Amino acid sequence: MNHMKTYKDEDGCKVRMAMQQEMEAITKSVMTCTRCELYKTRTHAVAGEGTITSPLLFIGEAPGHHEDMQGKPFVGKAGNILDELLASIGLNRHDIYITNILKCRPPQNRNPLKSEISACSIYLEKQLECIQPKILVPLGNFATAYLFEKFGLHFTRISDVCGKLYRVTTLSGTTTIAPLYHPAVVTYDSSKKAQLLKDMEALKSALP
Ligand code: URA
Measured from the CB, is residue 61 less than 6 Å from ligand 1? Predict the structure, then answer.
């Protein structure tokens, strides 16, 4: 029995009502989460943003200052670079869903702790189940390490795996993991931009 209702979004695309409701429920739990200490210092939790029916799920590390202030992912400098990268292959934010490993900002943007990742990952796991993306794009070391461990792949470091495509089997079929350097890297090493643009081409080749 198909009990899912559908409606059309502003672009006239079909969105499954059940999926929409599920994502709203996930977002609501993120907003009031107290599973680790980061809730004490956050301004806003940042659940994620974008098109839930997209085949592309981008996963960053954690909200920074601007994201914490606005409650939206990738709205600072790294977000501008991400927009440029997307545009280089003819995409924009509306074509993807984007979230982070951690939904709350670590103080002074320090690296996520293992305990924070394990407390927070229930939300990413629910988002993965809800969206069932065809392509997963982890940005930087933390998101890539998380996905590689989840799917039993050997992770060394981001420089060894970025720009390559990894096919994994999920409950919904085959999914491609296309790791990229974190866009923020360009803010302190501008030479990485060329590499990122090249790696976007690899990602483009995996688009459905
Ligand atoms: N860096 C991230 O990893 N995520 C954001 O949302 C912003 C910057």
Answer: yes
Alpha helices in the chain, H assignment, sequence order = 17-31, 65-70, 77-88, 114-131, 141-150, 158-161, 185-188, 192-205
For 2-205, give the CATH class. alpha beta
Domain chopping of the chain, boundaries: 2-205
* pLDDT band with cut points at 50, 70 and 90 for residue 17: confident
Q: Which of 145, 124, 144, 142 is nearest to 133 (CA)?
A: 124
Render pLDDT for 125-170 as a digit per residue (tens, 0 to 9).
999 999 999 999 999 999 999 999 999 999 999 999 999 999 999 9
Which is the closest atom of ligand 1 to the Cα of 73?
Answer: 6
Single out the residue of 59, 206, 84, 33 nearest to residue 140, CA to CA.
59
